[in-house]
Amino acid sequence: MVVETFELSCFVPSRLDGRALEAVVTLAADRSGQGDAAAETARAAKAVVYLHPYPPLGGQLRNNVVHELASVLERRVAVSIAFNLRGAGRSEGRTSWTGTSEQEDLRTILDMLNARSLVLHPRYHSQAECSTLRTQMRARGFLLSGDTAASRLDTVPLPPVTSTLLCGYSYGAVVAAAIAADEYPLLAIDYAYVSYPYSVLWALVLQRRGWYLQRLVDTICNAAAAYANQHAVVTSARPCPHIPQTFFVAGSADGFSSASTYERWWEQLRACALQFVQAQQPSVNPDMAAAAVSYALAVELVLNANHGWLRRERDVSDAVVSWWGPLQGSQ
Question: I need a surface site. Which of 116, 131, 290, 301 has the fewest CB within 10 A?
Fold first, then answer.
């Protein structure tokens, strides 16, 4: 398989206040004509959105872990988007105290994926530049001549997406987890969290810590219950709605959250999800309840890796690829 990529460095307006957010969008397509048709169809419908660590501590889209994940995953999906939250890199604005503004920055990107249209910031991109980009995309086969989204002068069309991974590292994981999958049902969101800053969450979002943790619990519990319900009844010919899956990967020498803290927390999440499934379906088979929890939540603790993953970046990408790749079509 020969995969060609088209990379676009740009600025997009946040839906919250119009502030410019720096983004790198990579489109990919198989040009060999000899690849597996089913595999190419699955790859062509996928997208990954990467979220970086805390901006005031230097977090930005060119972080070592984000770069590693993007370099490995961008050729496996149709659309790969790394962007700077407000206050990071060349993005405008400041980091908020609670992460609420950053959630809207992320929704800005998801809105564009949902609409299949990347809206470029008019202060950074002229209509002539947009026209040139579309011409280049069309010449390289990344834009179909009949694409109606190409008619807007301030946008760049994106391919249709039916499977999306929100891949957040450290503070980026906190922001990613705040987005409920049912906000964007057409994108079929799954979650990968690298070094979720559990023990220091209070310092990143202050009084909103409980809300963020509850959002995680709700996502995992609802997914487990949905899986159990879906497999407890006779399925019809109608396609089943997507059930989001969550994956945590962290190092045993994280530095902010100890290995025992992670393991204790993950076990609490499993127990909560199991209890929720049993409460929703009192007659559920124990094996089915356990399978539902395993579907909704997966974890991996990497021995001797710290929070920064310096020279251990490959361990992160290997973990995410081995988890997310086989999931497609697993429901």
Answer: 131
Residues 327, 291: Cα–Cα separation, whole Å: 14
Task: Name every residue whose Cβ is closer than 8 Å to that of residue 137 and which is 6 or more positions away in sequence.
Answer: 6, 27, 143, 156, 157
| Best CA proximity match to 118, nearest among 186, 28, 23 | 23
pLDDT digits (tens, 9 = 90+) for 174-189: 999 999 999 999 999 9
| Pick from 188, 287, 288, 172: nearest CA to 245 | 188
Please indicate whether residue 322 or residue 147 has the higher confidence score (pLDDT): 322
How many whole angstroms separate alpha carbon 1 and alpha carbon 202? 46
What residues are paired with 82 via a beta bridge?
A: 24, 50
Q: Are 25 and 18 in contact (CB under 8 A)?
A: no
Name 282's Cβ contacts closer than 8 Å, sequence gap at least 6.
none
Q: 81 by DSSP, 3-state: which?
A: strand
Cβ atoms of 10 and 119 within 8 Å: the answer is: no
Instruction: Read off the pLDDT of residues 44-55 as tens digits, 9 standing for 90 and up.
Output: 789 999 999 999
Strand partners, 21: 12
Distance between CA atoms of residues 318 and 214, nearest Å: 29
Dihedral sign, CA of 65, 203, 11, 40?
positive
